[in-house]
Automatic annotation (TrEMBL):
Keywords: Signal. SUPFAM superfamilies: alpha/beta-Hydrolases (SSF53474). The keyword Cytoplasm does not apply. This is Esterase. It comes from the Bacteria. It holds the Pfam family Esterase. InterPro entries: AB_hydrolase_fold, Esterase-like, Mycobacterial_A85_antigen. Residues 1-20 form the signal peptide.
């Protein structure tokens, strides 16, 4: 495993030195992708003692972005430090992976398969995290928000909760202005957007199967009221379908904003408080054989 500390987000201490966290950059070889898989990792204050296993959040980026967007544009380190210091969320490990796809097994790469078969096992064998369902949550924005929704609908046994900020959950198809129309994940051999590929990989392919099984995943959804891609509408359609199934375990927020980082940086605290409400607290490390 290769690791370097990000120059943009090194050890961070709050006033008085009472809390210090770290964000570092890592790669590991992915058999599924046949290349290195990159991710950024937030470790809470006290992690170095090695005495605890922590709940883990997988936080996904948007279309044509990478693993650095949440630390830089989302200012996630300071947000996590503040919420932990105020007792609003437990100390947690946060994984911010990079993907060349929409978190789907698209035409360009099997991103979903790599996430489940390569990334999660790597994290759970490398870092001190809880390796049961009640220790894992997932979230993301835009394309990453739709990825998070797909992950929990298709694999509810894996996650305790989900947060989807401005999720790109377009039904039946993305608007013409959406980057999905030019993203390699959905472009066929002729370089054209494949509407059937979109429909096959969108949440509508998984939601009936999710509702037919017994596990319930609490889900937080939000959108700006004048989102340029009409996600306030598409998010409401998703919310309504989920509310009919699990009225006590889905929330939908519409706020004064567009499809923008200002919205995501300002609303991620509420989303984090929601998902961590359903996770285990940090616990004593299990002995290794």
């Amino acid at each position: 495993m290769k690791a370097t500390v990000l120059a943009l987000a090194m050890k961070f201490a709050l006033a008085g030195g009472c809390l210090a966290s770290e964000i570092s950059h890592h790669t590991f070889p992915s058999k599924t992708l046949e290349r290195d898989y990159a991710y950024n990792l937030y470790l809470p204050d006290g992690y170095e003692s090695g005495k605890l296993d922590y709940p883990v959040l997988y936080l996904l980026h948007g279309s044509f972005e990478n693993e650095n967007r949440w630390p830089v544009r989302g200012r996630i380190q300071g947000t996590l430090d503040r919420l932990i210091s105020e007792g609003k969320i437990p100390p947690a490990v946060v994984v911010m992976p990079g993907s060349l796809s929409w978190w789907v097994d698209g035409y360009n790469e099997p991103a979903k398969t790599a996430f489940f078969e390569d990334l999660i096992p790597h994290i759970e064998t490398t870092w001190n995290v809880i390796s049961e369902r009640d220790g894992r949550v997932v979230g993301g924005l835009s394309a990453g928000g739709s990825g998070a929704i797909n992950f929990v609908l298709e694999h509810p046994e894996t996650f305790a909760a989900c947060a989807a900020l401005s999720p790109a959950v377009y039904v039946p198809l993305p608007p013409e202005t959406s980057s999905a129309n030019r993203h390699p994940a959905y472009l066929n051999r002729d370089g054209r957007f494949d509407p059937e590929k979109w429909k096959t990989l969108n949440y509508t392919s998984f939601i009936d199967g999710y509702k037919a099984q017994d596990l319930v995943v609490p889900i937080y959804i939000n959108s700006g009221d004048h989102d340029k891609y009409d996600i306030a509408y598409h998010g409401a359609v998703l919310f309504q379908s989920l509310w009919e199934h699990q009225p006590k375990y889905v929330e939908f927020r519409v706020v004064d904003a567009d499809h923008e980082w200002e919205l995501w940086a300002e609303t991620i605290p509420e989303a984090l408080e929601y998902v961590f409400r359903y996770t285990s607290r940090p616990q004593g490390r299990k002995p290794t054989n």
